[in-house]
Amino acid sequence: MSNIVVGLDIGTTKVTAIVGEISEDESINVIGVGITPSRGMEKGMVVNVEETTLCIQKAIEDAQRMADLPIDLVYIGVAGSHIESINNVATKQVTGDQSIVDSSDIDQLLAEVQNINVPDGKEIIHSIVRGYKLDSAPLQDPLGMKGSNLELSAHIIYGATNSIQNLITCAFNVQLSVAQVILQPLASANAVLNDDERKMGVALVDIGGGTTDIAIFKEGKLNYTKVIPVGGTHFTNDLAYFLTTGFSEAEKLKIRYGTVDPRKVDKNLVLEVSIVGGDEKRKVNADVLCEVLEPRADELVDLIIQALGEGVGDLKELSAGIVITGGGSQIRGLESMIKKKTGLSVRLGRVKSVNGLTQKVSNPMYATGVGLIHYGYHNYEKFAYDTKEGLIGRMFSTIKGWFL
Ligand SMILES: Nc1ncnc2c1ncn2[C@@H]1O[C@H](COP(=O)(O)OP(=O)(O)OP(=O)(O)O)[C@@H](O)[C@H]1O
Ligand SMILES: [Mg+2]
Prior knowledge:
By secondary structure, the chain is an alpha/beta fold. It contains 11 helices and 19 strands. The chain has a 6-stranded mixed beta sheet, with helices on both faces. Strands 14-13-12-17-18 form a 5-stranded mixed beta sheet, sandwiched between helices. A 4-stranded antiparallel beta sheet has the order 7-10-8-9.
């Protein structure tokens, strides 16, 4: 396998292509980065193939130039509210010689556990093994073990075929082959979480521009995933609406002066805000920004708490707390609001263990792009798509490909 892996994160606000060279010690050396503002994307989904294609082309060209090598294969992330997931369990009697579990027992279970009622128009994106039990005893790998009743539990993630196909079409349009489509929070989790956190119980919350993506891990295994269709863009839109200003002016104000914590507002600060569609400016007290942003943050945190509740029941199960990442996680006061409302520890997840152009990808905004490289490298060949033939379907290669 090539030691070059490319992550293509087609986000709601920016498209990022990151070229990673995998070193002998399996660390990622970032050798090329292309970042361009997104067009044709809404709430994590493609709404205009032509526009998104052009953005991908620009990001890929920039990354190619920097890395000084051609890019033809990419791992892409998928998100959007069409994504659903369930945990499923399959069981079978061991039929191998002398009741020893053989690969056909495992293959049958892997097929059986995916036998779920996927709604029309949706398809399975990931089937991730959570664990096996042989005669009720938990096991990592049952192959070669003696027993009679084998059980497999897996986390199955599925999404709308059209939305997935639109992403692939945009990549095909610029002659890229898609090695695998990966759920964005799984990618981000690979870039920012550590093994201890996954063992203790942790929620990864990637607050992007159009969506907030959640992945919960317990006892080292993926337990729950969810995509909430609210992100940083909603905060900016609220500001633009209330201040009757343009989106880019509202975006600047949010990033420079915005906070969701009224105690952090500089009460003496007066801002000059341009009125949309004219040269006129209006004076606005800085606390107005907080008055607009705080309720939106409150609503988003409630949605996050609701999702975490669905995932683990009691939030105390998350012993390692919550790791927030994505560009939207940087809004001032949000981290402490989540801490206060959940009673859990919260940390900002920055991209870990990369070398090379680390400055360019250290912002939490790039967690998905870098995570796609991690995920792609460790799960190589799980799915295969071909540019010329179109979608040629999934090819499950090895059981290893089923583990996160
Ligand atoms: N310093 C900052 N303070 C507040 N918000 C910020 C900051 N930097 C970026 N953001 C916000 O982060 C959001 C973009 O985050 P990100 O790049 O992770 O999204 P995306 O990947 O394009 O979107 P998605 O993952 O939802 O499809 C924007 O709404 C932007 O305003
Ligand atoms: Mg994103």
